[in-house]
Design brief:
Elements lengths: L6 H33 L3 H4 L13 H13 L5 H13 L2
Keywords: Membrane, Transmembrane, Transmembrane helix
Protein name: SHOCT domain-containing protein
Length: 92
């Protein structure tokens, strides 16, 4: 039976397999996006009301100390620390 297949039979079969694979991938992508969207907290819950934000200190020494604490606790990276440190020192 396989000997009766011509090149265009194989080409059509490969095309059908490619379409089926594409549809399966798109379904998986849609499911993953839906799961991620449902697992993400709502954006409005992440926003801090304006009146409850801490007022940044005008003293550069205090700002640099807080910056060092954030880096020590691992809340910011070394690159972020250096960028903010340069910004604070540039204001002097």
């Amino acid at each position: 039976m396989l000997s009766n297949l011509t090149w265009w039979h194989l080409l059509i079969s490969l095309g059908v397999l490619a379409v089926v694979a594409f549809v399966i991938v798109m379904i998986i992508v849609a499911v993953v996006r839906a799961v991620r969207k449902s697992a993400a907290p709502p954006v409005h819950s992440l926003q801090v009301p304006l009146g409850s934000r801490p007022v940044p200190s005008a003293d550069p020494t205090v700002q640099l100390q807080k910056l060092a604490e954030l880096r020590a606790e691992g809340l910011i990276s070394d690159a972020e620390h250096e960028a903010k440190r340069t910004e604070i020192l540039g204001r002097l």
